[in-house]
Amino acid sequence: MRSLRPLAVWIACSALVALPACGGDAEDSDQAAAAATPGFDPDLVVEQAAGPNVAARTGRIDGRVTFTLEGVPGYEEFSAGVSGPFRFRKDASLPDYDVEIGARDYGVRLTSVGGRSFVSLGTTGYPLPPAVRRRLARSAAKGRNGLTRTLEQFGIAPWRWETDRVAAGTGRLDGVAVRHVTTGANVVRILRDANTLLGFMRSLGLTRAVGLPDEIGPAARRVIVGSVTSFAGESWVGVQDKVLRRSGFRMTFVVPRDKQAAVGAITRGTVVGRVDVTQVGRRQRIAAPATIGPFADFAVGLDALGDAQDARSR
Q1: Which pLDDT score is estimated for 24?
Q2: Residue 166, beta-bridge partner list
Q3: How many CB atoms lie within 10 A of CB 12?
Q4: In angstroms, rounded to a whole number, what is the distance separating the alpha carbons of residues 53 and 245?
Q5: What pLDDT is stored for residue 307 in this prediction?
Q6: With 292 labelled, which of 36, 70, 93, 258 sits at a CA distance of 20 to 30 A?
């Protein structure tokens, strides 16, 4: 069976792009201090951020998750990230976007523009197979604004994960008036949505190429849910435009000795993540890759990488 050691990477990577519902650290933010009396409904704030909103039609996502794990040589501390611009055109099946998604030394660029989608390695882009694009479009249709449609296509919908929302005050972030909400999270729902991301990666052959599991199975999900010792999240949403501006979380877990085999020998860990949504409402320049190659060439390259991963895991 393929190693499950990178499993925690993609669980938290899902949380990374979807931090709007999970929360972040604002110690280094610009004037993000909370007011003494919040005076707002945190559930309504999150509902508005996830709902129809023309102000969320364009922007840029920049997020990173840092992992500190024990019990897994070579994975003691590393990062995963997602970054890039997005824009939503009315009645488009997918938003336009140009994002880089990566973990450790592996990464690809995903571009969707003018009704076409590409996955890129280096400077060459490869058109997504129609079935893969349809998969993304079905998921994106669940979103209700440009930002949430961009996240939903990867199964990232933090508004489904939140628990125990608390109004924590108001302040300013990058010159914008924001409301601050702290939250917990339903880890079961996070893991279910993580499988949507893994399913997309599997459809491209990426899971085998980088040594990731094809899915987080029921047994592993039960172990992870039962191992979480703490989860604290917070997010900041614009007062006027109702758009998520920053979010982050900190999660710790300890895996019982008799359950460690189900999660690739991980014994304990800490995951810290943050995402910023900037350039909200600004025009975003998104273009198709300058060099286009056949998807078959992309698949051949991934097969070779997958063969190397399989050889190392034997």
Answers
A1: 43
A2: 182
A3: 23
A4: 14
A5: 61
A6: 93
Residues ≥6 apart with Cβ < 8 Å to 310:
2, 208
- What is the pTM assigned to this prediction? 0.80
DSSP 3-state of 166: strand
Length in residues, the chain: 314
**Measured distance between the N- and C-terminal CA atoms of the chain, rounded to whole angstroms:** 10
Separation of alpha carbons 84 and 97, rounded Å: 7
As given in the structure block, the two tokens for residue 270 are 């800490």
Alpha helices in 108-154 (DSSP H): 130-140, 146-152
Sign of the torsion formed by the C-alpha atoms of 42, 63, 286 and 118: negative
In the DSSP assignment, the letter for residue 75 is -
Domain regions of the chain by residue span: 7-309
Token representation of residue 56: 């969320």
Query: How high is the pLDDT of residue 201?
Result: 77
Q: Residue 91: left (phi > 0), alpha (psi -120 to 50), or beta?
A: left
Q: Looking at the domain that runs over 7-309, which CATH code has it been given?
A: 2.50.20.20
The C-alpha angle 67, 276, 201, rounded to 5 degrees, equals 55
**E strand intervals along the chain:** 58-70, 77-87, 96-103, 106-113, 116-121, 124-127, 162-173, 176-185, 228-238, 244-254, 268-278, 291-292
- pLDDT, averaged in runs of 10, over the chain (314 residues): 44 45 44 57 94 95 82 70 90 93 75 94 91 91 92 78 91 94 86 78 73 73 88 91 89 91 85 87 95 90 65 58
Q: Which residue has the tokens 């931090």?
A: 19
Instruction: Give the 3-state secondary structure percentages of the chain, helix then strand then coil, rounded to 5.
Output: 35, 35, 30
Residue 127 is which amino acid?
Answer: P
CA distance 93 to 128: 14
CA distance 202 to 163: 30
Rounded CA-CA distance 84/96 in Å is 11
